[in-house]
Amino acid sequence: MADYELTGKTVLVTGGAGFIGSHVLDHLIGKGASVVVFDNLSSGRMEFIEHHLDSDDLTMIKGDLLDTDAIDAACKGVDMVFHLAANPDVRLGAVDTRVHFDQNITATYNLLEAMRKACVPNIAFTSTSTVYGEADMVPTPEDYGPLVPISLYGASKLACEALITSYSHTFDMRACIFRFANIVGERSTHGIIVDLIEKLRNDPDNLEILGDGRQSKSYLYVTSCVDAVLFAVEHSDEQVNIFNIGSEDTIDATGIGEIVVDEMGLEDVEFTYTGGSRGWKGDVPRMMLSVDRVKAIGWHPDTSSGDSVRSTVRVLLK
Ligand code: NAD
Questions:
Q1: Which atom of ligand 1 is closest in space to residue 64's alpha carbon?
Q2: Which of 138, 144, 195, 274 has fewest C-beta within 10 Å?
Q3: Mutate to test the pocket of ligand 1, among 72, 84, 223 (most ligand atoms within 8 A of CB)
Q4: Which atom of ligand 1 is nearest to the CA of 183?
Q5: Do residues 270 and 204 both lie within one domain?
Q6: 59 and 114: one domain?
Q7: What is the whole-number distance in angstroms between the Cα of residue 23 and the centre of ligand 1?
Q8: How far is the CA of 88 from the centre of ligand 1 (A)?
Q9: Cα(58)–Cα(188) distance, rounded to whole angstroms?
Q10: Are residues 205 and 107 in the same domain?
């Protein structure tokens, strides 16, 4: 029995035209929810949601979370918010120190204020493994601490988590916070797989990998991730619920390169490495999350990191 039913609810999805957000939209509509997508289309694409545009169950608002009037209006009459809109580019923080502060922290504050004013009692938020920083416990459980992010992106997401938990307690909201491993799959527009495919299309003989290639992380296919998120929203009953979402193994950067080369049908590709244990400043070289908490409520990852990567390469090459 679900503790909370999404069927029949009106749900606002910020970032609903993005990579993961558009899959959230697919799953929510599949469940019989009415969905309002709120997206500024900075990295989201209308083509990701166009198959729902004729549906009475979708309302698309092109709006920006930094526009408080727009998000205030969008929250009226909503039962629950799935908050995915963000700038998800971890590397960007090293060259632009403002972007994650504005797009993640201020944007989340504006959304929480709009929810408070419109009395929207329920939020699901997409956080990240990077809030843990370089954890010395791997797999890392949700109660690991202290949380010491090493990227501005991770810091901004941790700040968002703190805003959400404090709003929940102060204004009687329920929150589900999801700390994602690397999520990959159809409609991916960024990340290592997209980068490596592009590099090999430009030069099929050489593949440059950032770092020493041994950065080893957990990858999960997007439909499994969204399945976990919706399952946890419906089956968790604390006021604040924090869940790691990922696969239960890892793959390293060289291993991903080998899958990309294999799926592109290339041979004799020379791998070169930029060197150092991390790909960029703020990169966490070793990441795998404990998913025991979400398993305890009944969701189990159904795919490995390697299979998630291979399926993604296949779908992106189509
Ligand atoms: P994405 O860039 O595809 O999605 C973000 C969406 O938010 C886009 O559609 C974009 O247009 C929209 N957006 C950005 N700023 C906005 C603003 N100010 N107002 C309105 N809309 C705005 O990225 P994604 O990979 O789908 O990530 C979705 C969420 O999941 C993000 O919160 C991200 O931090 C989180 N996350 C992703 C991963 C991953 O591996 N992809 C891992 C951990 C966490």
A1: 19
A2: 274
A3: 84
A4: 40
A5: yes
A6: yes
A7: 12
A8: 5
A9: 22
A10: no
User: What tens digit of pLDDT does each residue of 13-27 get?
Assistant: 999 999 999 999 999
C-alpha dihedral sign at 24, 30, 32, 37: positive
How many degrees, rounded to 5, is the angle at CA 82 between CA 78 and CA 88? 145
CA atoms of 215 and 112, how far apart (whole Å):
36
In a domain, 65, yes or no: yes
Name the residue at shortest CA distance from atom 44 of ligand 1: 128
Q: Are residues 235 and 312 in the same domain?
A: no
Range 202-228 average pLDDT: 98
Q: What residue owns the CA closest to ligand 1's atom 35?
A: 126
Whether 42 lines ligand 1, by a CB cut-off of 6 Å, is yes
For residue 194, what are the domain limits?
184-217+249-288+303-317
Residue 295: exposure state from Cβ atoms within 10 A (0-12, 13-18, ≥19): middle
The reply to whether 2 falls in a domain is no
Domain shared by 179 and 194, yes or no: no
Ligand 1 centroid to residue 266 C-alpha, Å:
32
Residue 101 C-alpha to ligand 1 middle, in angstroms? 14
The pLDDT of residue 30: 97
Distance 143 CA to ligand 1 centre (A): 25
Model confidence band, residue 2 (pLDDT cutoffs 50, 70, 90): confident
CATH number of domain containing 68: 3.40.50.720
- Do 120 and 75 meet the contact criterion of CB atoms below 8 Å apart? yes
pLDDT reported for residue 1: 62
pTM of the model: 0.98
Residues 119-140 pLDDT 10s: 999 999 999 999 999 999 999 9
Instruction: Indicate if ligand 1 lies below 6 Å from the C-beta of 39.
Output: yes
Report if residue 4 sits inside a domain.
no
CATH of the domain at 277: 3.90.25.10
